[in-house]
Structures are given as structure tokens and as C-alpha cells.
Design a protein that fits this description.
2 strands, single chain, two-stranded parallel sheet, 10 helices
Length: about 300
């Protein structure tokens, strides 16, 4: 994050915000700046990526599903935007330690152990390391003693939209992101690559909540995409993985996505429409849109 901080200092913070008498390397100034930059950055990524996915990828017919909550999109955004500033506090603590030089991040490729081959290897190791860590953190958050206090708020969203991607309890959100921040303290990583991976992580997190079940055939059994994660939201205790299905297979929690078996949430909508229980605009037989005028979804057994 020192690269981002240096750019912010050079172009905005030093000339327009802070007094010249306050040095850029002062700890308090760096912490304040990191808080501002981190919150602005994640808000732009979340709202920008979420909006693009919601407008151009997400199938709005899913909003007719009986388990889609009233005003759900607004609930998702409100939940995320109230949690992200809290999540940023411990995150900035890790960023500050990194800025002070205690991580294994490096500036130029020549500083890596094996030049470019190691930079490319870092991408693979980062994805594999964080995928394994997040799987077990996710399973921990589903433990019956933990789930109802932290992770349940995310699972109220049975039919998520891209805006559900960051709608977590603050502790839930921080724990789920922790492997990304721990990695550069354990393994060498190029600073620019770290920022690129940070953006990629947010794109991926949005994508597995977008309800688009497009995945090339050979990858369907390997990559944990939106189809797998939709089943996780609906079935609760399957498909915990972030990027791949490997750890779900090892942990015995893998479920072949319903969409690959010809069963998708839209089938439920079509069936209920044919039965006259909802109209083509998503209103049920009583005229209530999405079947949730009280704002609460159909409860599943884990709730």
C-alpha cells in the first residue's frame, strides 16, 4: 500500500490536504491517510464492480424468486457500506505494518528470488494459499456456535445479487479477507502484483454472486464459480471454496451445482408462474412483489 500512499501524497494529500509542516512519514498521518484511501478504494471497487455486474451480467428475472427479499439490493448495499468502514480498521493496521517495511513485498522484479518466473509463480501460490485458507475460515464461520452471530446475515440472501458480495458482518468480512493480507508477510510478492491481485479478488468476489452460470465445460468441475456459490447460499453447507473445488472435495463438502443438473433458480420462477402463484412481474397471488412484503425470506433449516 505504500505505492498507493505515495501517489495519494504526491498528487492530493500533501499539496491540498495536510499542512506542509506535517511530514509524510509521520505514523499518525500515514494511518489517517491509509484509512481514507482504503475506504475510498473499497467503496469504488464494491459499488463500481457491483453496479457493472448488476446492470450487464446479473439476470434480473432472479428477483422474482420467492426467496428474493423485499428491497434486497438496498439491504445488501446498506449492509456492505456500514460494515466496510469497520473492516477497514484492522485492515489498515496490517497495511501500516506493511508500509513500515515489515512485509516481504518488493519493488522491482530483480529483487524477487528468481526474477520473472517467481513473479508468475507468486500468482499461482497466492491463489492456492488464499483458496485453502478461506475454505477453512468459511467452514469455521458455519460452525453452529459461530454462524448465527456473524455469518448468518450473509446467508439471509438466498438469491444474492452482485451487491451481496461484500455484505458481511465486520468480523466475518475481516476474517474472510485475512489470508490476502497475511500472504505478503509470509511470502515474497511484487507490490504492483499485490495491488493487481487485490483488484482481482474483488472482481472474483462480485462474480460468484452475479447469478451468471457461464463456465467453460472443462472448468466446471474445477473452478468454484457462481453456479457453485449459488448452491452454497441455497443449501448452506456445501461449496465453501473461493476459487476452486479442490478443498470442498477434500473436505467432503463438494456439491455438483444444480445448474449443471438442469436445475436453476429460474426454474422455480417458471413453475410458480405457470401455477399462477406469481405473475410475470414477480408479484405473488396476493399482489406482493417477490413474495416478501415483510422483508424476511423463507427460513431454511440452518436458521
Amino acid at each position: 500500500m505504500d505505492l498507493v500512499l505515495n501517489v495519494a501524497d504526491h498528487y492530493v494529500l500533501t499539496p491540498y490536504v495536510y499542512p506542509l509542516s506535517w511530514p509524510e512519514d509521520t505514523a499518525l498521518r500515514q494511518i489517517i491517510s491509509l484509512l481514507v484511501v482504503t475506504n475510498l478504494g473499497i467503496a469504488v471497487l464494491y459499488l463500481g464492480l457491483g453496479w457493472l455486474s448488476y446492470q450487464f451480467i446479473f439476470d434480473h428475472n432472479l428477483m422474482k424468486h420467492p426467496q428474493f427479499l423485499k428491497n434486497q439490493v438496498w439491504l445488501e448495499i446498506r449492509h456492505a457500506m456500514t460494515s466496510l468502514p469497520i473492516i477497514s480498521i484492522p485492515t489498515v493496521a496490517l497495511f501500516f505494518i506493511e508500509v513500515k517495511g515489515y512485509s516481504k513485498l518488493y519493488d522491482i522484479v530483480e529483487e524477487s528470488p528468481m526474477d520473472w518466473p517467481f513473479v508468475l509463480f507468486s500468482i499461482i501460490s497466492f491463489v492456492l494459499f488464499t483458496d485453502g485458507c478461506i475454505y477453512w475460515i468459511h467452514r469455521f464461520l458455519h460452525h453452529r456456535c459461530i454462524y448465527k452471530h456473524f455469518h448468518k446475515k450473509h446467508h439471509v440472501l438466498k438469491i444474492p445479487t452482485p451487491f451481496a458480495s461484500h455484505a458481511f458482518h465486520p468480523l466475518d468480512g475481516f476474517l474472510s479477507s485475512l489470508p490476502y493480507h497475511v500472504y505478503p508477510f509470509l511470502f515474497p510478492l511484487h507490490k504492483v502484483l499485490y495491488l493487481a491481485l487485490y483488484i482481482f479478488v474483488n472482481i472474483w468476489t462480485v462474480s460468484i454472486h452475479d447469478g451468471a452460470y457461464r463456465m467453460p465445460g472443462p472448468l466446471q468441475e474445477v473452478v468454484n464459480g457462481a453456479a457453485h456459490h449459488t448452491d452454497h447460499h441455497l443449501c448452506f453447507n456445501v461449496n465453501y471454496g473461493q476459487y476452486f473445488t479442490l478443498w470442498d472435495r477434500i473436505g467432503g463438502s463438494y456439491k455438483k451445482p444444480s445448474v449443471l443438473e438442469g436445475k436453476v433458480p429460474l426454474d422455480c420462477i417458471s413453475r410458480l408462474t405457470a401455477e399462477g402463484k406469481i405473475s410475470s412481474n414477480g408479484a405473488n397471488a396476493n399482489g406482493h412483489t417477490n413474495g416478501h412484503d415483510n422483508g424476511s425470506g423463507t427460513k431454511s433449516k440452518e436458521e
